[in-house]
Amino acid sequence: MRQFRRRKGPLTKNSFLTMSSAAAIVAVSFAVSAPVRAADDAVIQKWIAEFQPSTLSKEDQKKELEWFAKAAEPFKGMEINVVSETITTHEYESQTLAKAFSELTGIKLKHDLIQEGDVVEKLQTQMQSGKNVYDGWINDSDLIGTHFRYGQTVVLSDYMAGEGKDVTDPMLDVNDFTGKSFTTGPDGKLYQLPDQQFANLYWFRYDWFTNPDYKAKFKAKYGYELGVPVNWSAYEDIAEFFTNDIKEINGVKVYGHMDYGKKDPSLGWRFTDAWLSMAGNGDKGIPNGLPVDEWGIRMEGCRPVGSSVERGGDTNGPAAVYSITKYLDWLKKYAPPQAQGMTFSEAGPVPAQGNIAQQMFWYTAFTADMVKPGIAVMNADGTPKWRMAPSPHGSYWKEGMKLGYQDAGSVTLLKSTPADRRKAAWLYLQFIISKSVSLKKSHVGLTFIRESDIWDKSFTERAPKLGGLIEFYRSPARVQWTPTGNNVPDYPKLAQLWWQNIGDASSGAKTPQAAMDALAAAQDSVMERLEKSGVQGACGPKLHKKEKPEYWFAKAEKDGTIAPQRKLANEKPKGETVDYDTLIKSWPATPPKRAEAK
């Protein structure tokens, strides 16, 4: 496999989300000295006190931690190395949970924190060379199609029932994980388990949207209520309204939109993170459209067959071109002028400065930094002036499609790791996602992985200060936010094509259509090379021959699928909004029975 290296610096979304450039740039390790003997009761009680609140009773926590200590006895004294990217959740794991695990088990655990791109590079190095670089990995579930096809990743569902049964936590409760479908291959087997998750959602100034004067002016101009936009038409109207009608609030120039546009690697996942699906690219299906996914890649059976419209894909179809066109229009018309030259890391803090009305593409991992006391978007009583809500959809979107992206950093084992080291690493990876620790970890990083954590009473109490985060994760809408899926056969190779090609549209070097044509051709070229190499076996790419676009438009209509769609005569239907408070009240107020916390 060709290695994939991103430039050094705060370029990846997750490395920046710590809001700490030093932590993002410098690899951090915490080596922990292990005790000579298995954990005694005093050690267990010490860590139970740290892991509060928990969805488990203290008695059940004790039972689970005693199991870890017992199961780890054959591996005491071993030095095990695990790696993840640098975000707040993983910092807690590296600094606190690694220490706890070592004290409880006698295994010397070192949890490295490095940049997201470096995790991918080192993972590829081990897969390519067969040499053990790390014993355990936490890497994005975006690589599920890669892991499934290269055959070098341990199939966890098989491992837990077979070779690893003796080191699989009987209290793990796999069905409690909200993102299990993200880490399941086309064969129905589990390849990873989520360790942290966060979505990109719609962010808006609740205080401005509920201002009676602004509401009256908006209704008079557009004929409908100022509220959470349901479609892109309303988002555009609201952006126009605040930028060019309201113009200033308290003497400060305000803008109706925020984004970034510099041709830079960070521009790539601005779009691979489901921007096209929000517009209506691809087919229906959760977690990813079938046969065509949100990248525009068509898959038949388990084989990718093309991304260009000429091969039945949708990467350069009308819905995708519409999504890029709207991105560019809004960036130029409604965002601060400097946004066009910003990277993700530069644009991220801007909404918190207080002059942005709304942002469609906003990661919930920013929540902890957006609720800091004293900043411009917080009230004196500790409640936010803003809220988050489900994102609006574009004119090509149909009910049943995914509607946004959810990052799911997930625990992963490789076959090239020696069996005993793999078992010891599996114990640690389970420990950091176990019910004994996951609720406390969720409070630290606000990156939920378990249904039981989301519905715990401690988050009911905390919800009013988190701007809609808890309400969203408890809502039925959340299932429409999903990571990159199985149609993408080699995520590292294909992902790096996006920023270069869309960057040409952002810079004005190419039209949106020309940029997406080039991206589709580049993706097909990579998949063609994979097909010729045969390295991915029976589920590797097998490209369709090219046909005229009309062939595929007609086929989709005949088959009752969606992608690729013909160009719409009207890409801006009437705007539609919903009242935020009404929306929240419409969602279920009680948890599913299996998620009820003790």
Automatic annotation (TrEMBL):
GO terms for molecular function: transmembrane transporter activity. It comes from the Bacteria. Residues 1-38 form the signal peptide. Keywords: Signal. PANTHER family: ARABINOSE-BINDING PROTEIN-RELATED, POLYGALACTURONAN_RHAMNOGALACTURONAN-BINDING PROTEIN YTCQ. This is ABC transporter substrate-binding protein. It comes from Bradyrhizobium forestalis.
